[in-house]
Specification:
The protein has 20 helices and 15 strands. By secondary structure, it is an alpha/beta fold. Helix 7 links the parallel strand 9 and strand 10. The longest helix is centred in the N-terminal third of the chain and has 33 residues.
Length: 540
């Protein structure tokens, strides 16, 4: 064992034995000791920024970086091998079956997710690393219940999403402090696979989530430079696509690209987390109360402005402007309902490709053909970097526009309560990606439901029938809906539903909603993994 490095859990011992070599642990320690203080300072800066927003300071484009935005000459790195054409990207967690099915889906790339579609039990995190390692080496085939799962001859290009900067990895401590979840996920994947990927004609490619400031992108870039030097890999081999899924990041898209420019492969519209962030960052703004979740579509003012600015920004800097997720999954037992759902997918993908996006996200392999057809018909080349969208003029007011047609309905409140309970209880039980109402839901949806319920209660919003949304009303819905959660989510334990119910009731009573439910509930996973409570920073 490396001095100062301690594994706090005995979960998945075989995966631990294979991953936690002396070399890998030395790399983890080097990254932690070099960059952890910067991460912590950036998290403090997030808190300071939120206090400014709460005091009435409005978000705006940063004056200190106006020269970066105005300078036309700089561009990002050219597309790396396998990233020239990204018209359909499939996403999902890193369990072995999902990895094979996604890589075989026919999509151009697969974003293997250690973040919002994964519940970060230690077994999930490190077995996921093993599955990706084996897939890269074409040693991932297996049999289950008599069915063979085999990797195809031409699988999708692999992109990995580590956890966000806010999340710790409490099962691994270095010098008596938990390592960053971001660094843990990135480092293990990079250390074990970067050279193998280059040898196969690809490279170490990443999606970077939840950033709120260009200095957070600078931290990632510094880590990339350090890591490539550490293993003797040429600089600028890594590529990273940043998810623009926080409201502050929407005001710093060019700066984020600039910081990562020699490692950048573009930006992505992380649409569901963006709505969550829009509510959370404007928590002190009574005028930012939104209607039912279903009414906050990609065509409402603030979402439309964000999409147009992202496309314009990326193509100005010659990188991919990736569209958002279609969470629909096929409805096998109702052809009419399935056609309605698939029509929504077609309309969404047509909106994206005609707006100028270079690709889109799907959550289910059977949606690939629909998305692919729309992009094939409307994007004849590998991308649309030539679509500069010079017609677009987006001001700060456009990104902050709260005019969203719609109302708050009883069905909308009920669905938020039910979704929050269902997802949270599944997540505590180790499942971070669940089908609900023929949509594949991850943590982002649960986050929207949580902060919307808080917002409606906090500001005394009323239903379309005039009834107020009170604590007592939410409590009554929790009491009514909690007993049915086990029927709509397979394998959920009653005690986890109880935790989810108490958590939601506590959240709507807070002065401000918590930053992330995943941070709040991580101690449940850590305790199950045998971690000493002193290494758990967050608690209910």
């Amino acid at each position: 064992m490396i001095k100062g490095v301690k594994i706090q859990s005995k979960a998945a011992p075989q995966a631990q034995a294979e991953l936690f070599t002396d070399g890998a642990l030395e790399f983890l320690a080097a990254l932690h000791r070099t960059f952890e203080s910067t991460r912590q300072s950036l998290l403090v800066a997030r808190e300071e920024a939120q206090r400014r927003y709460d005091s009435g300071v409005s978000l705006d484009f940063a004056p200190e970086t106006a020269n970066i935005r105005a300078e036309p000459s700089w561009h990002c790195a050219p597309p790396a091998p396998g990233l020239e054409d990204r018209r359909v990207e499939i996403t999902g967690p890193t369990d072995r079956k999902m990895v094979i099915n996604a890589l075989n889906s026919g999509a151009k790339t697969f974003m293997a997710d250690f973040e919002d579609s994964s519940s970060p039990t230690f077994a999930n995190m490190i077995n996921g690393q093993i599955n990706l390692r084996d897939a890269i080496r074409r040693n991932v085939d297996f049999e289950s219940n008599g069915k063979q799962y085999k990797l195809s001859a031409q699988p999708a290009v692999l992109i990995v999403r580590p956890r966000g900067w806010h999340l710790d990895e409490p099962r691994v401590t270095i010098d008596n402090a938990p390592i960053s979840g971001s660094i843990f996920d990135f480092a293990l994947f990079f250390y074990h696979n970067a050279k193998e990927l280059v040898k196969a004609g690809r490279g170490p490619y990443f999606y970077l989530p939840k950033m709120e400031h260009y200095l957070e992108a600078r931290l990632w870039n510094d880590i990339f430079l350090f890591s490539q030097s550490y293993i003797g890999m040429p600089h600028n081999t890594i590529r990273a696509t940043v998810l623009i899924e926080t409201l502050p990041a929407a005001f710093q898209m060019e700066e984020i690209l600039f910081e990562l420019r020699n490692h950048s492969s573009g930006l992505n519209c992380g649409r569901w987390d963006y709505i969550f962030s829009f509510i959370k960052k404007r928590r002190a703004d009574r005028g930012a109360v939104l209607p039912d979740r279903k009414d906050v579509t990609m065509t409402v003012g603030f979402m439309d402005a964000y999409v147009k600015l992202l496309i314009q920004t990326c193509h100005k800097r010659k990188v991919a402007a990736m569209g958002g997720m279609s969470a629909q999954i096929p409805i096998k037992d109702d052809a009419e309902a399935n056609e309605v759902a698939m029509a929504k997918v077609r309309a969404d993908k047509l909106r994206e490709v005609t707006a100028g996006h270079d690709g889109t996200w799907i959550a289910h392999p059977l949606i690939n053909q629909i998305a692919r057809q729309i992009f094939d018909e409307n994007m004849l080349g590998p991308n649309q970097y030539h679509v500069l969208r010079q017609d677009v003029k987006v001001a700060a007011a456009d990104l902050l526009n709260t005019k969203v047609p719609g109302q708050i309905t009883e069905d909308g409140v009920r669905e938020n309560v039910s979704t929050s309970l269902a997802y949270t209880s599944a997540w505590i039980g180790g499942n971070g990606c669940i089908p609900l109402n023929y949509l594949m839901e991850d943590a982002a949806t649960a986050e929207i439901t949580r902060v919307q319920l808080w917002q409606w209660v906090h500001y005394g919003a009323r239903l379309d029938n005039g009834l107020p949304i009170t604590l007592e009303y939410i409590d009554s819905l929790v009491k009514e809906l909690a007993p049915g959660i086990k029927k709509i989510v397979a394998g959920v334990k009653e005690e986890n539903v109880d935790v989810a119910a108490e958590y939601l009731k506590a959240q709507v009573r807070k002065q401000w909603p918590s930053e992330f439910l995943t941070s709040d509930l991580m101690p449940y996973l850590a305790i199950a993994d045998g971690v000493d409570p002193k290494y758990q920073k967050s608690a209910l």
